[in-house]
Amino acid sequence: MKNFIEKIIEEDLTAGRCSEVITRFPPEPNGYLHIGHAKSICLNFGLPRRYGGRCHLRFDDTNPEKEEEEFIEAIKRDVAWLGFDWGSHLYFASDYFERMYAFAEELIEKGLAFVCDQTLEEIRRDRGTLTEPGKESPYRNRSVEENLDLFRRMRKGEFPEGSRVLRAKIDMASPNLNMRDPVLYRIRRAAHPRTGTTWCIYPMYDFAHCLGDAIEGVTHSICTLEFEDHRPLYDWVLDNVTPPSRPYQYEFARLNMTYTVLSKRKLARLVREGHVNGWDDPRMPTLAGLRRRGVPPEAIRRFCDRIGVAKTNSVVEIELFEHCIREVLNKTARRVMAVLDPVKLTIENYPEDRIEEFEVENNPEDAAAGTRKVAFSRNLFIEREDFLEDPPKKFFRLAVGREVRLKGAYLVTCTGVKKDPETGEVKEVLCRYDPASRGGNTPDGRRVKGTIHWVEEKTAVPAEIRVYERLFRIENPEGAGEEFLEGMNENSFSRKCSALVEPAAVQRTSSGPMPLQFLRMGYFIEDIDSKPNHPIFNKTIGLRDTWAKVKR
Ligand code: ATP
Ligand code: MG
Question: What is the dihedral of CA 363, 364, 369, 373, to 10 degrees?
Fold first, then answer.
């Protein structure tokens, strides 16, 4: 099914209103990109891919102080990682300051903009309300000459910050507050990361954005619904100057997701106040965090595809996102065995010095993934929770007298345990194996329900495992206002420091860490801080899909 923007584009192409689709993704470099931005990126880069054309990456750096080089680099890295390419079309709104200034003079010359000496507080006070018209500024009727002179002197730096602004002369009685003589330029004495101190006046978003679009030849300027009320101003500016092209703005619903905050201000606060370990903390909904967590870019694209593009705001269940992650990882992640919380398993009737190798599949979902060899001996480790001294009837794992399959190896029957005499903690589980069950087959067709994973003692590699849960325990932290921190999940991070993984889990590839499935335990990926002598894995997500259970 086509979304409403695709329909508009098809009509525009058919009617010849444009011959190719030119879009832009316009991040403000004051934070890292998150999954909400991914929706916008997939849409903006996806449309020209489908219809022909291109998408520009334009940094909206009209705000002098805020921008940071770190964010610019992170944003480029993240867009590329998501799988999109802006080619040679990397732009900065600040590249257009000179041309924007000329458009501002054009408005003044047409009597459509004036220099106002009111303070921002006075302007706000006189703006009126939804039910009451605003009050015209006492400076509204300055002559074109006076306005030009003052504006040029504003540019030259003759006036202090906050003393004057340039305003559009539209209509103080407009039902749309954005049209009540909005501010177009303000004085800011701050060094800009790219233009330095060349400028001391800076354009406002509503003036800069439409002009940036027109300068770049953007055909469809797609933004989120909050900008719907700004569209008349977008059109007013372009209709009243002589723009090099005439773009149009379309609004779609931003992504909101349960158990997640996506407002940049809230995310920045989490980082600043140390509630998480940086923008790329694997619990963050940022692309850098998701990447570090092990979420493949394909899963994010798939998710954005699934949720579609609509005109009404809604909140998407995080289970759908998790479902998409599992779908992709199930097909792509290599299977290995890892024991997160190990307890020794000794096979009493297996020869002391024997080492066997079993050939196992790397991924049953992908024949091309091939096989690998796994070492096996008398001394293994299994997951502590896979043994119970006093098991319920339906416990299909190890317990004294019960038989299980050691994945890909043999059937073993538990014969007893060794415990710490003081604490009573189980130190070692003892068992006997059935030599006729090599490869995990049941020789006489007897029923063995349980299969557990294991690692071999001598070859296993010690590793640290970092386990992440949702950052918020409340469903709608975004709606909790400033109190959102109180909804944080205190148990969102834990680590297992004595895990053991099979050697195949730490085989390095040149293309960076590979997503892995630790059999029965979930999906994992090596962390960027992982070292050969101290491997660290992040848990991406568990195996059990809960999407089907979410009531819809
Ligand atoms: P702020 O909260 O500071 O306004 P922002 O989240 O809008 O920031 P920008 O850097 O201005 O961040 O966003 C770049 C683009 O991404 C914009 O076009 C914006 O509409 C889009 N975008 C931001 N958040 C979402 C979201 N949750 N869903 C879809 N698109 C989004
Ligand atoms: Mg924004």
Answer: 70
